[in-house]
Amino acid sequence: PFGFNRIITPHNTNSPIINLLGVKYVLSFTELPSPQFTKVLEEGQTKVYKNNLQHYYQELDQCMRRGQLMF
Predict the structure, then answer these.
(1) Which residue(s) pair with 38 in the sheet?
(2) Which of 14, 63, 31 lies closest to 23 in space, CA to CA?
(3) I need a surface site. Which of 2, 27, 29, 46 has the fewest CB within 10 A?
(4) How confident is the model at residue 57 (pLDDT cuts 50, 70, 90)?
(5) Is 0.70 surpassed by the pTM of this model?
(6) At residue 6, does pLDDT exceed 70?
(7) Residue 52 contacts by C-beta under 8 Å, 6 or more apart in sequence?
(8) Which of 53, 55, 57, 26 is nearest to 41 (CA)?
(9) Residue 16 CB burial class (10 angstroms; 0-12, 13-18, ≥19)
């Protein structure tokens, strides 16, 4: 039998898919040098990063559903 690995290692944190999926937090064992993420917690080897752009994409999605676009 094989085990189930619950840890997905992000290799490309600059991908727009992360924002389109609505990812708010990323857990990583390594440093994320992207300005898109802010480290909010570090416990042992695990680091928790908050996605700074997620809120922007969520607002954009809501505006597009209502048919509004603000510039």
Answers:
(1) 50
(2) 14
(3) 2
(4) low
(5) no
(6) no
(7) 35, 36, 37, 38
(8) 26
(9) exposed
